[in-house]
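Reopening this one. Same input as before:
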Amino acid sequence: MSNCSNCYNGCTEIVSDRCVKYTGIDVPVLGIQTGDSLSFVEQALITFLTSTLDGTGIKPIINDTIICDLVRQYLPTCGELSLNDVLSAIIKAACDLQEQVDAIDATLTTLNADYTIDCLTGVTASSDTHAIVQAVINKVCALGVSLNALALDLHTNYVTIANINSYISAYINGESSLISSKMIPYVAVPYFNPDLSNFDGTGAGIGNWANIYLCNGANPGVPDLRGRVLVGTTTGMNGGALSSAVDPAIPGNPAYSLGTTTGLNQVTLGSTQIPSHTHTATAISIDSGHTHTNVTGSTILSNGGPEYLSGYSNNGTSGVGYANITTSVTINPTGGGLPHQNNQPAIGCYFIIYIP
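Same output, byte for byte:
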C-alpha cells in the first residue's frame, strides 16, 4: 500500500482512511465535498471543532443595520466576523458605556451638591440642577433685557466723548428743527413774542414747538404763572439752615413748597397793623349866661361874669355862688378803610416751559 497515497483508485486493498471515499453531501461550511478521503473529512471536522471551541470558526450571521456605532468601532473593518470578534466588540462597548455611566454619576454627584445661588431668585442652594439652570436662564434673559434697555437709553440720551463736539456744534448752529432742543426741560423762561400762533388753544406748542407749553396751567404738569412771580421753595431742596428772613418756623414768614401760590395784589390794614399814635383835641367852653341865688332868695344876675362870686351882700347877708359848666369833646373819624396796592414794579411777559 505504499503506492497508495490518499487515494482510492488503483488500490488493490484498502487498509487506510486515505483510501476511504466520502460519499455524503457537500458541506461547504466545513469544506467537505463528496469524494473527499476520510482522512480529509476527519481533519476538516477536527479543524472545525477546534475553531468552534475557541470561537474563531463560528461565523454568526448578523444584519449589519442593527449594529450600532458604539459596537462597530470595535469590529474588524474587513473579512468575515467571527463569534470572537462580535463578543469582543460587545464587551469593549459595554466597558465603554460603563466608563461613561461612571463619569455621568460622578458629574451628577457634583451637580447634586449645594449651589452658591448668589443673585439667583426663586431657588435655594439645595434646589435640583434643572431648577438652578432655569433660574440662571431667567437671570441671563432678564439681564439681557436690562442691557438692551440700558443700550437704548445710552443710545437715546447719551453721546460718546468722540461725538460730543459735533453734537455741541450742531446745537449751537441750530441744526435741529425742534425748538425744544435748545431748551432745558422743566425750566420756565420769559417769552416776549406777542405772536402765539405756535401754540394751540390750550397753550400746547405745535409743529417745531412740540412739547413746549404756555405756563397757563391748562396742560398736565404745566404751572400757571399768569399774574405770578417766582420764588424759591423753603422745602424740598435740602441745604443748610434757612435764614431768619425766610424761615417759615419764624412767625410772619410763609412756607413755600413746589407749586404753592400765595400773596395779594391789594392789602387792607387793620387797627392792629397801623403804628400806635395819638390825636390832639381842642375844646372851647362858652358861658351863655346864668344866675346865682343868695341865701335870702334875692337874685344876683351875672352875664358872662366869672363862675366864682364873692363879697356880695344883700340885706346884711353875704353868699357865695358856683356855676357847673360841662364841656364835651368829639373827635371825628378819618380814613376810608380802602386797601393799598401791594405790587412791586414789574413787566408783563408770557412764560413757556419745555416738558419732554
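So the earlier flakiness isn't reproducible anymore. For the record, The CA atoms of residues 234 and 346 lie 23 Å apart.
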